[in-house]
Write a structure and sequence with these properties.
three-stranded mixed β-sheet; 9 helices; AB_hydrolase_fold; disordered N terminus; globular; nine-stranded mixed β-sheet
């Protein structure tokens, strides 16, 4: 259920409540069958969610899950979990806004790929989950660079990233990645936003530009009244200046892109998926009827929509 922003705007600490775009973070201390390597836990970022996949269900018995640390271009440690089936090919999964590698959709897809013998890596962007760095409201292009650090890490380990998948903000990040780096030819955009100028007022209030110009930042608070995160003017402008239309026009025709979107998405309307379908050269669109932004009641429909597309890309490679 989405929280509406409060009408009170007294001073710098504007009492805006953040709607749940990310569905929830989970940094559980219990991760069965995980080999621990360079684990760093930040308890201040831990929060609970209702939906969580059980690792014990229908796993590939030959697979092993490993904690991996990747350094990005800013020397920050990015923490991830590799679902290693022994395959040389890897699918990298990117979470959305204020989320983490443990968001239930990321975990469910990783386990589903693992079951099919496909290795998958899910990781935390800087300032999220267990990774180092500070959270920033924008950072779309910088997160595309973080994804590149992950791709280079596995390429240097004699593995090959054959596909990248992102949910919500992560969907935009994988598209931006494809527009800049041109080295991954299977890209899956799960509920990404086409126009990044939209969706801000719902989170920050309709007068967000006026307030941030005056005060330099807006603090977004949770229901307990504590500051959840800060939106600076710089980070806001980073988002406003990120043009997904222009970026998508730079994606190579040889890059296969799949957009999956729920018809009942309450955060990012399904019309955004239709816009992506109009401009991306080599594009396939799949609408899941009745699904919301987090696919709460439609998790089982994601794998059949995504797996054949990944398989086809691996066969082509």
């Amino acid at each position: 259920m989405r929280e509406k922003p409060s009408n009170s705007r007294g001073g710098r600490n504007c009492n805006y409540f953040a709607p749940i775009e990310y569905c929830g973070d989970c940094t559980s201390n219990q991760e069965p069958n995980i080999v621990q390597t360079q684990v760093r836990i930040n308890p201040s970022r831990s929060r609970s969610i209702t939906l969580r996949v059980a690792f014990s269900m229908t796993q590939n018995p030959a697979a092993v899950q490993k904690k991996i640390t990747v350094l990005n271009q800013h020397n920050e440690k990015l923490i991830g979990v590799l679902h290693d089936t022994g395959s040389m090919e890897i699918v990298v999964l990117c979470h959305g806004f204020r989320s983490s590698k443990d968001f239930n959709t990321m975990v469910n897809l990783a386990v589903a790929l693992e079951k099919e013998g496909i290795s998958a890596f899910r990781f935390d962007f800087p300032g999220n989950g267990e990774s180092e760095g500070s959270f920033q409201y924008g950072n779309y292009l910088r997160e595309a660079d973080d994804l590149h650090s992950v791709v280079e890490y596995f390429n240097g380990a004699n593995r090959k990233v054959t596909a990248v998948l992102g949910h919500s903000k992560g969907g935009d990040v994988v598209l931006l990645y494809a527009s800049k780096y041109h080295d991954i030819h299977t890209v899956i955009n799960l509920s990404g936003r086409y126009n990044l100028e939209k969706g801000i007022a719902e989170r920050l209030g309709k007068d967000f530009l006026e307030i941030i110009k005056k005060d330099g930042f807006i603090d977004v608070k949770n229901r307990a009244g504590d500051v959840d995160y800060r939106v600076t003017e710089e980070s806001l402008m980073d988002r406003l200046n990120t043009n997904m239309h222009d970026a998508c026009l730079q994606i190579d025709k040889g890059c296969r892109v799949l957009t999956v979107h729920g018809s009942a998405d309450e955060i990012i309307p399904v019309e955004d998926a239709l816009e992506f379908d109009k401009i991306i050269p080599n594009h396939k669109l799949h609408i899941i009827e009745g699904a919301n932004h987090c696919y709460t009641s439609h998790q089982a429909e994601l794998t059949p929509a995504i797996l054949p597309f990944i398989r086809e890309g691996q066969q082509q490679n």
